[in-house]
Specification:
Belongs to the cytochrome P450 family. By secondary structure, the chain is α+β, with helices and mostly antiparallel strands. It has a single domain, classed as Cytochrome p450. The protein is built from 14 helices and eleven strands. The structure holds protoporphyrin IX containing FE.
């Protein structure tokens, strides 16, 4: 029988409980999605096969593509807005078009480039903690830390002037606010896009030696493509990192022995960050909407051209075939082969930046506020069980 999909989560520390049963059943199971029947990929090996595979498309315009978020009926205004937003949105493009954008962006996200960004990230983290301490001894961590940091890091990366940062932060916050209605969120998105349009126009007139200046200097992208590319960086890098931060703090506080070991041996933070990414898999299936563009066999299952596929990243990351004791949180496990950043040509471009942000933020927070504690029980925490990207709505802390 086909599973109704998506399946909601019920616990901040685990994927939907149904995933385990689905994974045992088969590497590919049938699901009923809003737009029709789809294949759900439950296991790690097959997840990688689909994400790296040829004969698979991520382009929403490909026949049979199951759109992850937007619903079937749209107003003419929404269709026009979506078309404008799709320019430069290379996460939705297949090779070879996808490669034109990806090749230009890769040098901006190398390990070396991220090393250069680290002192700036450290300053932003310290500033946010200074503010929390000044207002303390209580804070709401999602607002004060989770949402604030990724938005400031993107401002830094894109060279957003200090005077505009408050506007930028308030609009990015509204854009992903689960309590705001869709019109308000669309409004914030449009305002942000107009703002980025102005930023690109300014940089075109006087390019500097930064990410935007170098993209302009390449002469490979039109104005609208540039706006689309930097908008994608903002969207892809914001809610993901923002949700990971409070969830990570919560998880580490619930495993005090492992947190104490990290404090003693800070060299282990990078490994801990990958385990946190695996354990929470906040993106799960949301970015992994695909369609078969040719008949093929995946995990012993015939998949026909035009059939929609969702990879369940959170299930793949709890697959006992790839990870021993997968439901245990273990910062020592060495989980870097997780698929929380995807796999193949679309594997997260910002993964080194995300890792650096999480590592610096978590290490510094626990160093500077050693007696940090969550002031409510796990049952009283409010989480986005119905949201696209998983996370907490709020996390009250004190010290
Ligand atoms: C914890 C944080 C993050 C998580 C969990 C995450 C997760 C992902 C995943 C799963 C994909 C693959 C989508 C697919 O296969 O279709 C992806 C792609 C992408 N991510 Fe991230 N991401 C994070 C942070 C960031 C950051 C900080 C940036 C940049 C500022 C970023 C930029 C991108 C871009 C541009 C893509 C599209 C790559 C392509 O299509 O070639 N991400 N991300």
């Amino acid at each position: 029988m086909a599973e109704t999909f998506p399946v909601p989560r019920t616990c901040p520390f685990a994927p939907p409980p149904e995933y385990e049963h689905m994974r045992e059943q088969a590497p590919l199971v049938r699901g009923t999605h809003r737009d029709g029947e789809v294949w759900l990929v439950t296991r790690h090996a097959e997840a990688k096969q689909v994400l790296a595979g040829s004969g698979i498309s991520t382009n929403p315009a490909s026949p049979g593509h199951p759109n992850a978020i937007t619903s079937g009926t749209r107003s003419p205004e929404e269709i026009a807005a979506l078309e404008a937003f799709s320019i430069g949105h290379f996460i939705d493009l297949d090779p070879p078009e996808h490669g034109r954008f990806r090749r230009l962006l890769i040098p901006e996200f190398t390990v070396r480039r991220m090393r250069e960004l680290r002192p700036g990230i450290q300053r932003l983290v310290d500033q946010l903690i200074d503010d929390m301490l000044a207002k303390g001894p209580e804070a709401e961590l999602v607002e004060a830390f989770g949402l604030a940091l990724p938005s400031l890091v993107i401002c830094q990366l894109l060279g957003v002037p200090y005077a505009d940062r408050e506007f930028f932060q308030s609009r990015t916050r509204t854009m992903i606010d689960p309590t705001a209605d869709s019109q308000t969120r669309w409004g914030a998105m449009s305002e942000l896009r107009s703002f980025l349009d102005g930023l690109v126009t300014g940089a075109e007139a006087a390019p500097e030696d930064d990410l935007l200046g170098r993209l302009i200097g390449s002469g490979q992208l039109t104005h609208d493509e540039l706006v689309g590319v930097i908008f994608l960086l903002l969207v892809a890098g914001h809610e993901t990192t923002a949700n990971m931060l409070p969830l990570s703090v919560l998880t580490l506080l619930r495993h005090p022995g492992q947190l104490a070991a990290l404090r003693e041996n800070p060299g282990k933070w990078p490994m801990a960050v990958d385990e946190l990414l695996r354990y929470h898999s906040v993106v799960d299936w949301v970015a992994f909407d695909r369609v078969a563009t040719e008949d093929q066999e995946i995990g012993g299952q015939q998949v026909r051209k035009g059939e929609g596929i969702f990879v369940l990243g959170a299930s793949a990351n709890r697959d006992e075939r790839a990870f021993e004791r997968p439901d245990e949180f273990d910062v020592e496990r060495g989980a870097r082969h997780h698929v929380a950043f995807g796999y193949g040509v679309h594997q997260c471009l910002g993964q080194n930046l995300a890792r650096a942000e999480l590592e610096i933020a978590l290490r510094t927070l626990f160093e500077r506020i050693p007696d940090l504690r969550v002031t409510v029980s796990d049952e009283d925490l409010s989480a986005k069980y119905d949201g696209a990207i998983f996370g907490l709505k709020a996390m009250p802390v004190a010290w």
